[in-house]
Hints:
FAD/NAD(P)-binding domain, 23 strands, alpha/beta, Enolase-like, domain 1, 3 domains, 32% helix
Amino acid sequence: xxxxxxxxxxxxxxxxxxxxxxxxxxxxxxxxxxxxxxxxxxxxxxxxxxxxxxxxxxxxxxxxxxxxxxxxxxxxxxxxxxxxxxxxxxxxxxxxxxxxxxxxxxxxxxxxxxxxxxxxxxxxxxxxxxxxxxxxxxxxxxxxxxxxxxxxxxxxxxxxxxxxxxxxxxxxxxxxxxxxxxxxxxxxxxxxxxxxxxxxxxxxxxxxxxxxxxxxxxxxxxxxxxxxxxxxxxxxxxxxxxxxxxxxxxxxxxxxxxxxxxxxxxxxxxxxxxxxxxxxxxxxxxxxxxxxxxxxxxxxxxxxxxxxxxxxxxxxxxxxxxxxxxxxxxxxxxxxxxxxxxxxxxxxxxxxxxxxxxxxxxxxxxxxxxxxxxxxxxxxxxxxxxxxxxxxxxxxxxxxxxxxxxxxxxxxxxxxxxxxxxxxxxxxxxxxxxxxxxxxxxxxxxxxxxxxxxxxxxxxxxxx
Length: 464
Protein backbone atom coordinates (compact mmCIF):
# COMPACT_ATOMS: atom_id res chain seq x y z
CA UNK A 1 0.00 0.00 0.00
CA UNK A 2 1.33 3.41 -1.00
CA UNK A 3 1.38 6.37 1.42
CA UNK A 4 1.47 9.97 0.21
CA UNK A 5 1.36 13.31 1.99
CA UNK A 6 -0.29 16.54 0.86
CA UNK A 7 -1.26 19.85 2.45
CA UNK A 8 -4.81 19.35 1.18
CA UNK A 9 -6.77 16.41 -0.22
CA UNK A 10 -10.00 17.07 -2.10
CA UNK A 11 -12.40 14.15 -2.54
CA UNK A 12 -14.33 14.84 -5.73
CA UNK A 13 -13.27 16.41 -9.00
CA UNK A 14 -16.48 18.23 -9.88
CA UNK A 15 -17.00 22.01 -10.09
CA UNK A 16 -16.58 22.49 -6.35
CA UNK A 17 -13.66 20.10 -5.95
CA UNK A 18 -11.42 21.06 -8.81
CA UNK A 19 -12.02 24.79 -8.27
CA UNK A 20 -11.17 24.44 -4.56
CA UNK A 21 -8.02 22.53 -5.51
CA UNK A 22 -6.87 25.19 -7.95
CA UNK A 23 -7.57 28.00 -5.50
CA UNK A 24 -5.70 26.21 -2.68
CA UNK A 25 -2.76 25.61 -5.01
CA UNK A 26 -2.77 29.32 -5.90
CA UNK A 27 -2.51 29.95 -2.16
CA UNK A 28 0.63 27.82 -1.92
CA UNK A 29 -0.66 24.43 -0.74
CA UNK A 30 0.39 21.03 -2.06
CA UNK A 31 -2.97 19.70 -3.29
CA UNK A 32 -4.35 16.34 -4.37
CA UNK A 33 -7.71 15.59 -6.00
CA UNK A 34 -9.32 12.15 -5.79
CA UNK A 35 -11.87 11.34 -8.49
CA UNK A 36 -13.10 7.93 -9.58
CA UNK A 37 -14.31 9.00 -13.03
CA UNK A 38 -11.78 9.25 -15.84
CA UNK A 39 -13.11 12.67 -16.81
CA UNK A 40 -12.90 15.47 -14.28
CA UNK A 41 -15.75 17.96 -14.00
CA UNK A 42 -18.25 15.92 -12.02
CA UNK A 43 -21.88 15.38 -12.89
CA UNK A 44 -22.10 18.90 -14.31
CA UNK A 45 -19.57 18.32 -17.05
CA UNK A 46 -19.95 14.60 -17.70
CA UNK A 47 -23.69 13.92 -17.45
CA UNK A 48 -25.36 17.17 -16.42
CA UNK A 49 -25.10 20.86 -17.25
CA UNK A 50 -22.74 20.75 -20.21
CA UNK A 51 -24.07 17.80 -22.25
CA UNK A 52 -27.67 18.84 -21.67
CA UNK A 53 -26.96 22.37 -22.88
CA UNK A 54 -25.17 20.98 -25.93
CA UNK A 55 -28.27 18.92 -26.74
CA UNK A 56 -30.56 21.87 -26.07
CA UNK A 57 -28.56 24.02 -28.48
CA UNK A 58 -28.45 21.39 -31.23
CA UNK A 59 -32.13 20.50 -30.90
CA UNK A 60 -33.09 24.18 -30.97
CA UNK A 61 -31.16 24.66 -34.21
CA UNK A 62 -32.94 21.65 -35.67
CA UNK A 63 -36.31 23.09 -34.74
CA UNK A 64 -35.33 26.51 -36.08
CA UNK A 65 -34.36 25.00 -39.42
CA UNK A 66 -37.69 23.16 -39.64
CA UNK A 67 -40.09 25.85 -38.47
CA UNK A 68 -38.56 29.28 -37.89
CA UNK A 69 -35.96 30.25 -40.50
CA UNK A 70 -38.55 30.87 -43.21
CA UNK A 71 -39.78 33.94 -41.32
CA UNK A 72 -36.28 35.39 -41.78
CA UNK A 73 -36.36 34.78 -45.52
CA UNK A 74 -34.12 31.73 -45.24
CA UNK A 75 -35.56 28.89 -47.28
CA UNK A 76 -34.22 25.39 -46.71
CA UNK A 77 -35.00 22.07 -48.30
CA UNK A 78 -35.85 18.90 -46.46
CA UNK A 79 -34.39 18.97 -42.95
CA UNK A 80 -33.14 15.64 -41.63
CA UNK A 81 -31.91 14.66 -38.18
CA UNK A 82 -28.55 12.93 -37.79
CA UNK A 83 -28.78 11.83 -34.17
CA UNK A 84 -25.35 10.21 -34.23
CA UNK A 85 -23.64 13.45 -35.26
CA UNK A 86 -25.67 15.40 -32.72
CA UNK A 87 -24.57 13.05 -29.94
CA UNK A 88 -20.95 13.07 -31.10
CA UNK A 89 -20.89 16.87 -30.95
CA UNK A 90 -22.20 16.69 -27.39
CA UNK A 91 -19.53 14.16 -26.44
CA UNK A 92 -16.81 16.23 -28.09
CA UNK A 93 -17.82 19.30 -26.10
CA UNK A 94 -17.60 17.28 -22.89
CA UNK A 95 -14.22 15.76 -23.78
CA UNK A 96 -12.71 19.11 -24.72
CA UNK A 97 -13.75 20.74 -21.46
CA UNK A 98 -12.61 17.74 -19.41
CA UNK A 99 -9.17 17.93 -21.02
CA UNK A 100 -9.13 21.60 -20.15
CA UNK A 101 -9.63 20.82 -16.47
CA UNK A 102 -6.80 18.27 -16.60
CA UNK A 103 -4.56 20.95 -18.06
CA UNK A 104 -5.54 23.44 -15.36
CA UNK A 105 -4.69 20.97 -12.58
CA UNK A 106 -1.31 20.25 -14.16
CA UNK A 107 -0.65 23.97 -14.55
CA UNK A 108 -1.19 24.44 -10.82
CA UNK A 109 0.71 21.25 -9.92
CA UNK A 110 -2.36 19.58 -8.41
CA UNK A 111 -1.86 15.81 -8.15
CA UNK A 112 -4.75 13.75 -9.49
CA UNK A 113 -5.57 10.28 -8.06
CA UNK A 114 -7.85 8.15 -10.23
CA UNK A 115 -9.97 6.10 -7.86
CA UNK A 116 -12.59 6.14 -5.13
CA UNK A 117 -11.71 8.19 -2.05
CA UNK A 118 -12.99 7.38 1.41
CA UNK A 119 -12.25 8.90 4.81
CA UNK A 120 -10.16 6.55 6.92
CA UNK A 121 -9.83 8.38 10.22
CA UNK A 122 -8.56 11.84 11.04
CA UNK A 123 -6.22 13.18 8.40
CA UNK A 124 -6.42 10.10 6.20
CA UNK A 125 -8.08 9.32 2.87
CA UNK A 126 -8.00 5.78 1.51
CA UNK A 127 -8.01 5.64 -2.30
CA UNK A 128 -8.98 2.51 -4.18
CA UNK A 129 -7.67 2.93 -7.70
CA UNK A 130 -9.52 1.79 -10.78
CA UNK A 131 -6.77 -0.84 -11.07
CA UNK A 132 -7.50 -2.07 -7.54
CA UNK A 133 -4.34 -0.56 -6.08
CA UNK A 134 -4.73 1.00 -2.61
CA UNK A 135 -3.17 4.30 -1.61
CA UNK A 136 -3.43 6.19 1.67
CA UNK A 137 -3.24 9.98 1.49
CA UNK A 138 -2.37 11.82 4.68
CA UNK A 139 -3.22 15.48 5.09
CA UNK A 140 -4.15 17.98 7.81
CA UNK A 141 -6.85 19.33 5.49
CA UNK A 142 -9.55 17.37 3.66
CA UNK A 143 -12.37 18.83 1.57
CA UNK A 144 -15.43 16.72 0.82
CA UNK A 145 -16.76 17.70 -2.61
CA UNK A 146 -18.55 14.52 -3.57
CA UNK A 147 -21.56 16.07 -5.30
CA UNK A 148 -24.94 14.44 -5.68
CA UNK A 149 -26.79 11.57 -7.36
CA UNK A 150 -30.31 11.28 -8.81
CA UNK A 151 -33.20 10.52 -6.46
CA UNK A 152 -35.23 7.54 -7.65
CA UNK A 153 -38.69 7.28 -6.12
CA UNK A 154 -40.04 3.96 -4.81
CA UNK A 155 -41.68 1.90 -7.53
CA UNK A 156 -39.58 3.29 -10.37
CA UNK A 157 -37.50 0.36 -11.64
CA UNK A 158 -34.51 2.08 -13.21
CA UNK A 159 -32.75 -0.37 -15.53
CA UNK A 160 -30.30 1.98 -17.21
CA UNK A 161 -32.04 1.47 -20.54
CA UNK A 162 -35.78 1.81 -20.98
CA UNK A 163 -36.27 3.39 -17.56
CA UNK A 164 -33.45 5.77 -16.73
CA UNK A 165 -32.37 8.97 -15.04
CA UNK A 166 -30.93 12.11 -16.59
CA UNK A 167 -27.75 10.18 -17.39
CA UNK A 168 -29.58 7.86 -19.78
CA UNK A 169 -31.74 10.75 -21.01
CA UNK A 170 -28.64 12.39 -22.48
CA UNK A 171 -27.83 9.47 -24.72
CA UNK A 172 -30.88 7.66 -26.03
CA UNK A 173 -29.81 5.62 -29.09
CA UNK A 174 -32.89 6.69 -31.01
CA UNK A 175 -35.62 9.31 -30.70
CA UNK A 176 -38.34 7.74 -28.52
CA UNK A 177 -41.78 7.68 -30.08
CA UNK A 178 -43.28 8.44 -26.68
CA UNK A 179 -41.18 9.61 -23.73
CA UNK A 180 -42.64 9.93 -20.25
CA UNK A 181 -40.78 12.32 -17.95
CA UNK A 182 -41.46 11.91 -14.24
CA UNK A 183 -40.89 15.30 -12.63
CA UNK A 184 -41.62 18.85 -13.78
CA UNK A 185 -38.42 20.47 -12.52
CA UNK A 186 -35.68 22.00 -14.61
CA UNK A 187 -33.98 18.69 -15.46
CA UNK A 188 -37.17 17.07 -16.70
CA UNK A 189 -38.29 20.12 -18.66
CA UNK A 190 -34.90 20.69 -20.28
CA UNK A 191 -34.46 17.09 -21.42
CA UNK A 192 -38.14 16.80 -22.26
CA UNK A 193 -37.72 19.85 -24.50
CA UNK A 194 -34.73 18.28 -26.23
CA UNK A 195 -36.55 15.10 -27.21
CA UNK A 196 -39.79 16.91 -28.05
CA UNK A 197 -37.88 19.06 -30.56
CA UNK A 198 -36.26 15.97 -32.05
CA UNK A 199 -39.62 14.33 -32.63
CA UNK A 200 -40.81 12.57 -29.47
CA UNK A 201 -44.26 12.87 -28.00
CA UNK A 202 -43.30 13.92 -24.47
CA UNK A 203 -45.55 13.52 -21.45
CA UNK A 204 -44.44 15.22 -18.23
CA UNK A 205 -45.97 13.93 -15.00
CA UNK A 206 -45.66 16.28 -12.01
CA UNK A 207 -46.98 15.48 -8.55
CA UNK A 208 -47.34 19.13 -7.50
CA UNK A 209 -49.98 21.51 -8.81
CA UNK A 210 -47.35 23.52 -10.70
CA UNK A 211 -44.03 23.08 -12.48
CA UNK A 212 -40.60 24.24 -11.31
CA UNK A 213 -41.09 24.50 -7.57
CA UNK A 214 -38.90 27.31 -6.25
CA UNK A 215 -39.32 29.47 -9.35
CA UNK A 216 -41.56 32.53 -8.97
CA UNK A 217 -45.15 31.34 -9.40
CA UNK A 218 -46.09 33.96 -11.96
CA UNK A 219 -43.09 33.04 -14.13
CA UNK A 220 -43.76 29.31 -13.74
CA UNK A 221 -47.40 29.77 -14.78
CA UNK A 222 -46.39 31.65 -17.93
CA UNK A 223 -43.79 28.98 -18.70
CA UNK A 224 -46.40 26.23 -18.32
CA UNK A 225 -48.58 27.82 -20.96
CA UNK A 226 -45.67 28.28 -23.35
CA UNK A 227 -44.38 24.71 -22.92
CA UNK A 228 -47.82 23.28 -23.53
CA UNK A 229 -48.16 25.44 -26.65
CA UNK A 230 -44.84 24.01 -27.85
CA UNK A 231 -46.25 20.50 -27.57
CA UNK A 232 -45.17 19.23 -24.17
CA UNK A 233 -48.02 17.22 -22.62
CA UNK A 234 -47.66 18.40 -19.02
CA UNK A 235 -49.97 16.85 -16.44
CA UNK A 236 -50.09 18.28 -12.93
CA UNK A 237 -51.22 16.67 -9.69
CA UNK A 238 -50.22 13.20 -10.90
CA UNK A 239 -48.77 10.66 -8.49
CA UNK A 240 -46.65 8.00 -10.20
CA UNK A 241 -46.84 4.70 -8.31
CA UNK A 242 -44.58 2.64 -10.55
CA UNK A 243 -42.62 2.63 -13.80
CA UNK A 244 -41.02 -0.39 -15.38
CA UNK A 245 -39.75 -1.77 -18.64
CA UNK A 246 -42.25 -4.01 -20.39
CA UNK A 247 -41.01 -5.78 -23.48
CA UNK A 248 -39.81 -3.26 -26.03
CA UNK A 249 -41.47 -0.41 -24.12
CA UNK A 250 -42.47 0.74 -20.64
CA UNK A 251 -45.50 0.98 -18.42
CA UNK A 252 -46.08 3.89 -16.04
CA UNK A 253 -48.80 3.49 -13.45
CA UNK A 254 -50.41 6.52 -11.83
CA UNK A 255 -52.73 6.83 -8.88
CA UNK A 256 -56.35 7.00 -9.94
CA UNK A 257 -55.66 6.79 -13.65
CA UNK A 258 -55.04 4.43 -16.52
CA UNK A 259 -51.52 3.04 -17.00
CA UNK A 260 -49.46 4.92 -19.57
CA UNK A 261 -47.60 2.89 -22.17
CA UNK A 262 -44.54 4.51 -23.69
CA UNK A 263 -41.17 3.79 -25.29
CA UNK A 264 -38.91 5.22 -22.58
CA UNK A 265 -39.16 6.74 -19.11
CA UNK A 266 -36.97 9.52 -17.73
CA UNK A 267 -37.03 9.80 -13.94
CA UNK A 268 -36.18 13.43 -13.09
CA UNK A 269 -37.29 13.69 -9.48
CA UNK A 270 -34.42 15.56 -7.92
CA UNK A 271 -30.99 14.80 -6.49
CA UNK A 272 -29.46 13.90 -3.13
CA UNK A 273 -25.94 14.18 -1.66
CA UNK A 274 -23.54 11.40 -2.66
CA UNK A 275 -22.37 10.94 0.92
CA UNK A 276 -23.12 7.24 1.32
CA UNK A 277 -20.08 5.01 1.93
CA UNK A 278 -17.78 8.00 2.31
CA UNK A 279 -16.35 6.89 5.65
CA UNK A 280 -17.96 9.77 7.53
CA UNK A 281 -18.26 7.58 10.62
CA UNK A 282 -14.47 7.26 10.83
CA UNK A 283 -14.18 10.95 11.74
CA UNK A 284 -17.45 11.29 13.67
CA UNK A 285 -19.51 13.10 11.03
CA UNK A 286 -23.19 12.21 10.97
CA UNK A 287 -25.16 13.47 7.95
CA UNK A 288 -28.84 14.35 8.24
CA UNK A 289 -31.57 12.00 7.05
CA UNK A 290 -31.26 13.29 3.49
CA UNK A 291 -27.48 12.85 3.45
CA UNK A 292 -26.43 16.50 3.84
CA UNK A 293 -23.35 17.33 5.91
CA UNK A 294 -23.64 20.23 8.33
CA UNK A 295 -20.96 22.92 8.15
CA UNK A 296 -20.30 26.26 9.83
CA UNK A 297 -19.93 29.60 8.08
CA UNK A 298 -16.44 28.61 6.94
CA UNK A 299 -17.42 25.19 5.53
CA UNK A 300 -15.90 23.33 8.49
CA UNK A 301 -17.62 20.10 9.50
CA UNK A 302 -17.84 18.78 13.05
CA UNK A 303 -14.63 16.82 12.41
CA UNK A 304 -11.34 18.62 12.89
CA UNK A 305 -9.50 19.14 9.62
CA UNK A 306 -12.48 18.26 7.42
CA UNK A 307 -14.41 20.76 5.30
CA UNK A 308 -17.35 20.16 2.94
CA UNK A 309 -18.69 22.09 -0.06
CA UNK A 310 -21.11 21.90 -2.98
CA UNK A 311 -24.08 19.58 -3.30
CA UNK A 312 -23.22 17.57 -0.17
CA UNK A 313 -23.98 20.55 2.11
CA UNK A 314 -27.20 22.58 2.43
CA UNK A 315 -27.88 25.27 -0.14
CA UNK A 316 -28.76 25.40 -3.84
CA UNK A 317 -27.55 22.26 -5.64
CA UNK A 318 -25.99 24.15 -8.53
CA UNK A 319 -22.55 23.94 -10.13
CA UNK A 320 -21.80 27.65 -9.81
CA UNK A 321 -22.74 27.56 -6.13
CA UNK A 322 -20.28 24.69 -5.65
CA UNK A 323 -17.54 26.69 -7.38
CA UNK A 324 -18.13 29.66 -5.11
CA UNK A 325 -18.06 27.31 -2.11
CA UNK A 326 -14.72 25.96 -3.31
CA UNK A 327 -13.10 29.36 -3.62
CA UNK A 328 -14.46 30.60 -0.28
CA UNK A 329 -13.45 27.40 1.49
CA UNK A 330 -9.89 27.41 0.12
CA UNK A 331 -9.46 31.10 0.86
CA UNK A 332 -10.70 30.62 4.42
CA UNK A 333 -8.41 27.69 5.23
CA UNK A 334 -5.36 29.59 3.95
CA UNK A 335 -5.83 32.71 6.04
CA UNK A 336 -8.06 34.65 3.69
CA UNK A 337 -11.77 35.37 3.80
CA UNK A 338 -14.61 33.94 1.79
CA UNK A 339 -18.40 34.05 1.91
CA UNK A 340 -21.22 32.83 -0.32
CA UNK A 341 -24.63 34.49 -0.05
CA UNK A 342 -27.02 31.66 -0.87
CA UNK A 343 -29.89 34.15 -1.18
CA UNK A 344 -28.17 35.62 -4.25
CA UNK A 345 -27.24 32.52 -6.22
CA UNK A 346 -28.79 32.85 -9.68
CA UNK A 347 -30.73 29.94 -11.17
CA UNK A 348 -31.32 29.30 -14.86
CA UNK A 349 -33.58 26.90 -16.75
CA UNK A 350 -32.27 26.48 -20.30
CA UNK A 351 -35.57 25.78 -22.00
CA UNK A 352 -36.86 27.99 -24.79
CA UNK A 353 -37.53 30.62 -23.74
CA UNK A 354 -34.96 30.57 -20.96
CA UNK A 355 -35.96 31.22 -17.36
CA UNK A 356 -33.67 32.87 -14.84
CA UNK A 357 -33.99 34.19 -11.31
CA UNK A 358 -32.01 35.63 -8.43
CA UNK A 359 -33.23 36.61 -4.99
CA UNK A 360 -36.70 36.27 -3.50
CA UNK A 361 -39.93 35.29 -5.24
CA UNK A 362 -43.26 37.01 -4.69
CA UNK A 363 -44.39 33.98 -2.67
CA UNK A 364 -41.35 34.15 -0.40
CA UNK A 365 -41.71 37.87 0.24
CA UNK A 366 -45.40 37.42 1.00
CA UNK A 367 -44.68 34.60 3.44
CA UNK A 368 -42.02 36.73 5.16
CA UNK A 369 -44.37 39.70 5.42
CA UNK A 370 -42.09 41.96 3.39
CA UNK A 371 -43.83 44.83 1.63
CA UNK A 372 -42.57 45.18 -1.94
CA UNK A 373 -43.10 47.01 -5.20
CA UNK A 374 -43.10 45.29 -8.57
CA UNK A 375 -41.92 46.40 -11.97
CA UNK A 376 -42.65 44.32 -15.09
CA UNK A 377 -41.55 44.86 -18.68
CA UNK A 378 -42.51 42.58 -21.61
CA UNK A 379 -39.98 41.55 -24.25
CA UNK A 380 -42.53 42.33 -26.96
CA UNK A 381 -41.74 46.01 -26.30
CA UNK A 382 -37.98 45.53 -26.58
CA UNK A 383 -36.40 46.45 -29.92
CA UNK A 384 -33.69 43.81 -29.86
CA UNK A 385 -36.18 41.08 -28.99
CA UNK A 386 -38.23 42.16 -32.00
CA UNK A 387 -35.23 41.91 -34.34
CA UNK A 388 -34.46 38.45 -32.96
CA UNK A 389 -38.05 37.33 -33.34
CA UNK A 390 -38.05 36.37 -29.65
CA UNK A 391 -40.79 38.44 -28.07
CA UNK A 392 -42.37 36.09 -25.53
CA UNK A 393 -41.72 36.61 -21.84
CA UNK A 394 -40.88 39.45 -19.50
CA UNK A 395 -38.58 40.82 -16.84
CA UNK A 396 -39.93 41.28 -13.32
CA UNK A 397 -38.18 43.20 -10.56
CA UNK A 398 -39.26 43.08 -6.92
CA UNK A 399 -38.02 45.91 -4.70
CA UNK A 400 -38.46 46.77 -1.03
CA UNK A 401 -41.43 49.12 -0.67
CA UNK A 402 -39.61 51.36 1.79
CA UNK A 403 -35.98 51.36 0.62
CA UNK A 404 -36.32 50.46 -3.10
CA UNK A 405 -33.56 47.88 -2.65
CA UNK A 406 -33.92 45.09 -5.21
CA UNK A 407 -35.04 41.87 -3.52
CA UNK A 408 -35.62 39.61 -6.53
CA UNK A 409 -35.37 39.56 -10.30
CA UNK A 410 -37.22 37.00 -12.43
CA UNK A 411 -36.95 36.65 -16.19
CA UNK A 412 -38.57 34.48 -18.80
CA UNK A 413 -37.47 35.24 -22.32
CA UNK A 414 -34.53 35.41 -24.71
CA UNK A 415 -31.05 35.14 -23.15
CA UNK A 416 -32.51 35.15 -19.65
CA UNK A 417 -29.52 33.19 -18.37
CA UNK A 418 -27.16 35.94 -19.49
CA UNK A 419 -29.40 38.82 -18.46
CA UNK A 420 -29.62 37.60 -14.86
CA UNK A 421 -25.91 38.27 -14.36
CA UNK A 422 -26.46 42.03 -14.29
CA UNK A 423 -29.22 41.61 -11.73
CA UNK A 424 -27.06 39.34 -9.56
CA UNK A 425 -24.18 41.81 -9.65
CA UNK A 426 -26.45 44.74 -8.83
CA UNK A 427 -28.07 42.92 -5.92
CA UNK A 428 -24.71 41.86 -4.50
CA UNK A 429 -23.81 45.55 -4.35
CA UNK A 430 -27.11 46.39 -2.67
CA UNK A 431 -28.57 48.23 -5.64
CA UNK A 432 -31.98 49.85 -5.65
CA UNK A 433 -34.35 49.67 -8.60
CA UNK A 434 -33.53 53.31 -9.27
CA UNK A 435 -29.81 52.46 -9.43
CA UNK A 436 -30.46 49.97 -12.24
CA UNK A 437 -32.87 52.35 -13.96
CA UNK A 438 -30.28 55.14 -14.08
CA UNK A 439 -27.56 52.99 -15.69
CA UNK A 440 -27.18 53.78 -19.40
CA UNK A 441 -27.86 50.57 -21.32
CA UNK A 442 -26.81 50.18 -24.95
CA UNK A 443 -29.53 50.22 -27.61
CA UNK A 444 -30.85 48.04 -29.09
CA UNK A 445 -30.07 45.29 -26.58
CA UNK A 446 -31.99 42.84 -24.44
CA UNK A 447 -30.65 44.31 -21.15
CA UNK A 448 -32.75 47.38 -21.85
CA UNK A 449 -35.68 45.23 -20.70
CA UNK A 450 -34.07 45.03 -17.26
CA UNK A 451 -33.69 48.83 -17.18
CA UNK A 452 -37.32 49.29 -18.18
CA UNK A 453 -38.51 46.85 -15.50
CA UNK A 454 -36.50 48.85 -12.96
CA UNK A 455 -38.19 52.03 -14.19
CA UNK A 456 -41.54 50.27 -13.93
CA UNK A 457 -41.02 49.71 -10.20
CA UNK A 458 -41.69 53.43 -9.79
CA UNK A 459 -44.31 53.46 -12.55
CA UNK A 460 -41.95 55.26 -14.92
CA UNK A 461 -41.27 52.73 -17.72
CA UNK A 462 -40.69 54.60 -20.99
CA UNK A 463 -41.60 51.96 -23.55
CA UNK A 464 -44.57 50.25 -21.95
